Structure formats: structure tokens, C-alpha cells
Amino acid sequence: MKNLKRIIAFMLLVSIIFTLSACKFGKSGELDKPDDSSTPVVTEPEEIKITDVLGREVVLSEPAKKVVGTHNPSVSSVIVLGGGGKYIAGLGNKEMCRELYTLVIDGYDDIIQIGKGKQINLETVESAGADLAVFPERFKDLVEEFEKIDVPILVALPNDESFDTVKNTLSIVGKALGEDERASKINAFFDKKVADAKAISAKAKDKQKVLFLGSSSPLSVAPDAMIQTQLIEAAGGINAVSGVDAKGEFADVNIEQIIAWDPDVIWCPAYAKYTIESLLKDPAWGGIKAIKNKAIYEFPSTLEPWDYPTAAVALGVSWATHNLHPDLYSLDELKKDADEFYNLVYGKTFTLEQMGLK
Fold first, then answer.
1. N or C, where is the chain less crowded by C-beta within 10 Å?
2. What is the phi/psi pair of residue 162, to 5°?
3. What is the Cα 85 distance to its own chain's centre?
4. CA distance 151 to 58
């Protein structure tokens, strides 16, 4: 009997040892590791690869947080996508668009000025902690300079100006900032305003010839290859300029050419160095239809230029539609569009007086 009890006890002991061993060891016989399924897994962020307008591949280890630029139309995309100065580390000529930027960028006067145009202080760029520079194609010579200080440069705005290039600039800068969704929303607004303008102007009986003058001289004009042409056409007008081969810049002409074009309407930018009154009083301009009918207007806005290749050109299309077809698209409707745009990009609205519309 005693032997039987010993045998049973021995078998129980063996069973217990076997069970404990199964818990401690896997099928391979190796000691099981503790369950670490709850331990967070740290993964490296994926690189961001962007093809800029020169076809260069710009690689960022993470979305840019501190951006510099001196060319307002291109750096405007950074400000628009950041809803203000969120991503701005340094700027160029800070007098450009001061009226708007002081209202939407906290501490605007304290932002570092890195230079003007192509004259850039690279030491200042480094001191600003910049992790990206955004420039237009015509500043492409700066690429090598920025490579020397290991600051990636994104060439975001091509010389060929169009609505599509404005949207593409927002898209590629949005990717660099991790603001893809916001870029898509702004581009959708842009597309809608252009479509609305075309639908409104399609109701007009006649197409007016519009001459868009440059800022430096009344004898500089916007040729076909500039965004002003698309702006005129979206509003149902015709660019009065013809036979002028220029790309990405206003072209200098003579008064005889302007007289021959005989525009119905003339638009002068709000930032022009001359005045509408000076043209109305100039005998050389007296025989032009637009001058005789006093159909010469300042193209807004005093906040920011609505004729630049920036997101705000969508409002330029809206104003142009109102100017050519006030019976089809009222000032109140224009104000609603402006409110929608500025609410979308900055969470603010501005008065007609602030925008130079009254």
C-alpha cells in the first residue's frame, strides 16, 4: 500500500514539473519571452519626397516647420497654408503685403529679415533655424547656395503663370508642410470661384477688351503668358494685348501700340507707381476708348495684390467679374466671396474699406 502511495505521489510530481516546463518553454524548447504586445512600437517617420517645378526631387525627413523666403508670391503659399505665420522663420522685404501680414501674423515685426530678392544673408538663414526655403523658378540660382548650408530649397512657382501653377504651388508646398488636406480645400475654393465667374460672364452679351497695365509704368502691359490674361478671360473679357511675346513679366510697349489696341477697359494695379488721374489728364491717352469713357480702374486689393500668382487671385477673378458685369454680380456678392476666402485661410474677415473696395 505504501509503495502504491509512493508511485502515485511520484507521478503527480512528474506531472506538475511537466506542466511548469510547458509554461516556461515553447515548442522549440527555448524560454518563452514575456508578452510585450502592449509595448509601443517606435517607427521611424517616412521621408517626404516632393518633385518641384524644376523636376528636382526634394527629400525631407519630416514636415518642414521653419521656412524662409524672399519672393512674396511664392512664400505667400506658406503663409496661406499656415493660416498666418505658423511656419515662417524668415522673410525678405517685409513691407510687401504689410497691410495683410500684420493682421494675420502674430509678431510680424519681429520676424527675421533674411534679405531682399536674391540678396540673401545665409548666416541669418542658419540663425533662424530654417529647415526649408521656398522660392520661384527665377531664383533657381540660389539652389547651390542653400545646398552649402544644408537647407533644402523648394522651387515652387514656375515662370509660366496660370491658375494651374498657383494650385500646384499650394499642393507641393502643402506636401512639404504636411498640409495636403488644407491645400486641397483652398484649391477647391479656387476652382469654384473660377467656375462661378465663367458661368456668370457667359450670360453677358458682349466681351470687352481689357488692358492690364504693369506697376512700374503705364507703358508696361500684361501679355498672354501672364496670369492676368486668364483672370480677364475667366471674367468674360478679352486681353487687349496682342503680338507681344513675353513670359512671366510685364512687357514694355509704346503709346502707339496701346492706341491701336484701343481697349474698352483699363485696369491698373493698386501698387502702381503712377495714378489713374495722371492717365486721364494725359493728352497722349485721350483718344483711347477706355479713357474717353473713364473706364479705368484700380485693381484691388490694398490688403494684398489680387492679381499675383497666389491663392488670392481667386478674389481677383471675382472682382474682375463684378467690374465687367456689375449687373450680374454685385459688390455684396463679391464681399461674401472675400469673407469666405479669408475665413478659410486666416479665420478672419475684412471690411470693404480695408480691401480698398469702397
1. N
2. -165, 170
3. 13
4. 11
pLDDT for residue 41 is more than 70: no
Instruction: Determine the structural domain holding residue 218 and report its residue range.
Output: 203-346
> What pLDDT, in 10s, does the model give residues 223-281?
888 899 999 999 999 999 988 877 667 999 999 999 999 999 999 998 899 999 999 99
In the prediction, which pLDDT does 39 show? 56
Indicate the SS3 state at residue 126: helix
Question: What's the rounded Cα separation, in Å, for the pair 277 and 283?
Answer: 12
Strand partners, 31: 25
pLDDT score recorded for residue 42? 54
Residue 207 lies in a domain: yes
Q: Are 46 and 68 in contact (CB under 8 A)?
A: no
Residues in the chain: 358
Q: How far apart are CA 73 and CA 136, in angstroms?
A: 8
Mark which of 131, 162, 178 sits at the end of a domain: 178
Q: Which three cell numbers stand for residue 24?
A: 516556461
CA distance 11 to 16: 9
Strand 88-91 and strand 112-113: pairing? parallel
Instruction: For residue 140, give the nearest of 205, 74, 65 by alpha carbon.
Output: 74
Q: What nine digits make up the cell of 251?
A: 512687357
Which CATH number fits the domain that encloses residue 104?
3.40.50.1980
> 245 and 300, same structural domain?
yes
Domain count, the chain: 2
Residues 157 and 58 in one domain: yes
DSSP secondary structure string, 207-248?
--EEEEB-SS-TTEE--TBSHHHHHHHHTT-EE---S---BS
Kindly provide the b/e burial profile for residues 107-118, where b requires at least 16 CB atoms within 10 angstroms of the residue's own CB.
Answer: ebeebbebbeee
Are 214 and 268 a contacting pair, CB within 8 Å? no
Residues 273 and 315 in one domain: yes
Beta-carbon contacts of 9 under 8 Å, excluding residues fewer than 6 positions away, are: none
217 and 174 in a single domain? The answer is no
Domain assignment present for 148: yes
